[in-house]
Amino acid sequence: MNTRTRRMLQDALIAVLLSIALSFINREVTPLPLAFSPLPLIWLGLRHGGALSVLTAALAGVVIGAIQWRGFPIVDILLGNVLPLLGVGVCEFFARNTQRTLNNLRYSSTYLNIFTASLLTLMIYYGIQWGLLPSIGIGTTLPISTLLLGLGVTWLILAGSLSLLAKSAPQLIIPRRSKYLPRRETSSLLND
After folding, report:
1. Ramachandran region of residue 176, left (φ > 0), alpha (ψ -120 to 50) or beta?
2. Contact 151, 126 (CB under 8 A)
3. What is the three-class DSSP state of 181?
4. 46-57, pLDDT tens digit by residue?
5. pLDDT digit string (tens) for 72-125?
6. The pLDDT of residue 25
7. How many CB atoms lie within 10 A of CB 59?
8. Which of 113, 23, 115, 7 is closest to 66 using CA atoms?
9. Domain assignments of the chain as residue spans, ordered by start
10. Within 13 Å and on the Cβ side, how many CA atoms surround 109?
11. Conformation bin of residue 106: beta by default, left when phi > 0, alpha when psi is -120 to 50
12. Nearest CA to 124 among 47, 41, 180?
């Protein structure tokens, strides 16, 4: 196994563990429907792309479903935990531009990419978790004002924390030997 694959698997394991840990926060902090578990998966999607983040989201959803299982049908638990997290695949569309703009120190464009990727991912998550699943009898419905307020608060927290991470430690967003950046853009030996 080469170094890049090992690093991708380490990042995926970190994202799964953080996602599982963050899945317990959203039930006890506030009555708003907050969803912090997609945060490490969005980070992984912006760092390594959509394919790895979707596989990691599926694994995290299965583990979260197994932990929360209380005699409900397995299909309900899997649909309620795996399907909403699969929305992180949309980060694939923003990973390349996020890494390029961050590498070129264009922070406003980086923030725009991070905020847009986070918003689309959370809209998919909230749409499935509190829109689609209650319509087929899994989960509970919420008033639209509560749902939108929870979406807005979650979006600002997740995108703000990823933006702070990008500004303070860009190497956590841009992996070494990234597939989205050519070597000439990352080389310190070339004069600009």
Report:
1. beta
2. yes
3. coil
4. 999 889 999 999
5. 788 887 888 899 999 999 999 999 999 999 999 999 999 999 999 999 999 999
6. 82
7. 18
8. 23
9. 3-182
10. 13
11. beta
12. 41
Q: Which amino acid is at 87?
A: G
Q: Which two tokens stand for residue 90?
A: 């949309």
* CA pair distance 135, 112, nearest whole angstrom: 33
Return the exposure string of 111-120: e unless at least 16 CB atoms fall within 10 Å of the residue's CB, then b. bbbbbbbbbb
3-state class (DSSP) for residue 136: coil
| Per-residue CA distances from 135 to 5, 29, 94, 132 (Å) | 40, 26, 31, 5
Contact assessment for residue 61 and residue 69, using Cβ atoms and an 8 Å cutoff: no
Which residue type is seen at 56? T
Determine the Cα–Cα distance for residues 80 and 65; give it in Å rounded to an integer.
8
Please state which CATH class domain 3-182 belongs to. Answer: mainly alpha
Cα separation, 21 vs 37, in Å, equals 8
Quote the tokens at residue 172: 């956590």
